[in-house]
Amino acid sequence: MDLWFTEKQTEELAISCLVKNTVFREKTKYQDLAIVDTYQYGRLLALDGIIMTTEADEFFYHEMITHVAMNTHLNPEQVLVIGGGDGGSVREILKHPTVKRVVLAEIDEGVINASRRYLPTISAGLSDPRVEIKITDGIVYVREHPNEFDVIIVDSTDPIGPAVGLFAHEFYKDVSKALRADGIMVAQTESPVVNQDLIRKIWGNLKGVFPITRMYLGIVPTYPTGLWSYTLGSKGPDPVTVPAEKFLPLETRYYTPEIHKAAFLLPPFVQELLR
User: Fold this and answer.
1) Measured between alpha carbons, how far is 263 from 215 in angstroms, rounded to an integer?
2) Residue 2 known to be catalytic
3) Same domain, 88 and 142
4) Taking the CB of residue 64, how many other CB atoms lie within 10 A of it?
């Protein structure tokens, strides 16, 4: 008998993967955590039945949520990642030689522990001496650390459960306060195909906080519809005008300077969402 993992992505849409075996499952303090080994995508991490990352396609997401902001900032030294307990965003941030410190503020220690044990290619950066791991609510953490970070990456789950507050106007105001002059934040902002109302709300919340607000797109095969959005708020540098010499020769599988620029060329249906 075949065993399938199925995520119900909307009321009318689902994704299924044929599973070799269940690697690990735990009911943490906050959510149901499962790691399964799939034929198509390798090991898959799911929280409350929702795919967070897989070994085969994680680079699409982790490269795009990090390198756009890191290459836009003039000198990113102090970086905060909110959520992202799998460590993929931290791994990518550490590729930038200016980085002196990365703080990972993750509310669920179970995600970090499971990722370290079962997803080593994604979580390897968590052992770097520049990384500080804080088991805490990211909403509280940014409020208590004003004017401390150059870049803040909001690598959150979908806006349900403990992540709801990470999409609110008040949270974005606290993020702005936690950023230094010329600081930049990026948040994953869901699918422009099936999360249009949410994107309109997020866009409005961020536009009222940051002088420069840009949305950009990327591909994540296992996320709803495969087309994914990210929203960047900047207190200074504009991601669409990064000079050619700023792009470093990073070891990436999806992100390039050309992809960086093209990601901001939004199709008409996305532009309509932001009007």
Assistant:
1) 9
2) no
3) yes
4) 25
pLDDT at residue 4 tops 90: yes
Token reading at 223: 């996320």
The helix or strand, by DSSP H or E, that contains position 196, with its residue range, turns out to be helix 196-207
Q: How far apart are CA 18 and CA 125, in angstroms?
A: 29
pLDDT for position 119: 98
One domain, residues 200 and 103: yes
What lies within 8 Å, CB to CB, of 250 at 6+ separation is: 67, 95, 96
- Give the residue numbers spanning the domain of 92: 58-273
Record the pTM.
0.96
pLDDT at 159 over 90: no
**Active-site residue (options: 86, 108, 150, 155):** 155
Average pLDDT estimate for 254-270? 98
**Residue 73 and residue 47 in one domain:** no
- Report the pLDDT value the prediction gives residue 208, as an integer from 0 to 100: 87
